[in-house]
Every structure is written in structure tokens, then in C-alpha cells.
Please model this.
Amino acid sequence: MTNGVAAALDITADIRGEKLEWARIIHHRVTGPRGAASTISLNVETQQQNFRDKAGLKEKPAITEETHPAEGTGVTGLFHGKPAAICTVDGVVCRVSAECAHLGGILHWNDAEKSWDCPLHGSRYSAAGKLLEGPATHNLFKLQ
Ligand code: FES
Model:
């Protein structure tokens, strides 16, 4: 949030032909080849992890109507061929899509927070699939 405000002030000053001393460093920042390569490498690793996570769902036991994880735990797998996430919190079993509502990352169960977390960009969902934090903008689909 603060970077957005700083950028707006810097751009406004630039348009007016003014110089902001505090913005001198960020104003002249240039992304070099090393930084670009690092960003590309990070994105490739993230996508590889997501492919492994999606492929790994086929290796796990299928989720059925009878699947009831132990209290406070969650598992992912395929439910009628679709990526599914199922957990039990406070005695309530919830079954939702295991694909993040942002860009489809496979969610991981967070034992400490009792939430579904996306390893790609950090979206988080409640046990029942309600969006807690973006960048996703909507809840997970419930699987009936
Ligand atoms: S794909 Fe889950 S936060 Fe982007």
C-alpha cells in the first residue's frame, strides 16, 4: 500500500518537473538482467510445484462421501475426478474445491490456522472455503 502512494507522489512530481529527494533511489531503479532472471526462475519453480501438486492428487486416496478427516485436519485428493479439499473443524466436515479461486493453485491444509492456504500467491480460505485473504476475490466452490 505504501509503495503505491510513494509511486503516485513520485510520478506526480515527475510530471510537474519537480524532484523529490526521498524518491531519488526508487525513481532511478532499473530491473537488470539478473533480477529479471531471478523473477522468471521463481515463477517457473512455482508453476513446477503446482504441476507436482496437481499430479500428486492422483496418487492420494480418492475422496468419497464417506471421507471424514480427523478433527482439525484436512486432506486433498480427487472427488469424482475433481480436485477436492476436505476437512473437519469443530465436528463439521467441509468439502470444497482444492483449486484456488485466483489462478488454480492446489491448496494446502494449514493445521495451525485451520485454513486452506494457496502456495502460489498466498490466498487463504476458511475450512468451509470462505475467502480470508486475496489475491483471490471469491470463495471456493463447494463440492456436493
Ligand atoms: S493461485 Fe492461489 S493465490 Fe494465486
Q: What stands out?
A: The radius of gyration is 21 Å. The helical segments are 2-16, 24-27, 33-59. The chain has two domains: 2-59, 74-133. DSSP finds three helices and seven strands in the chain.
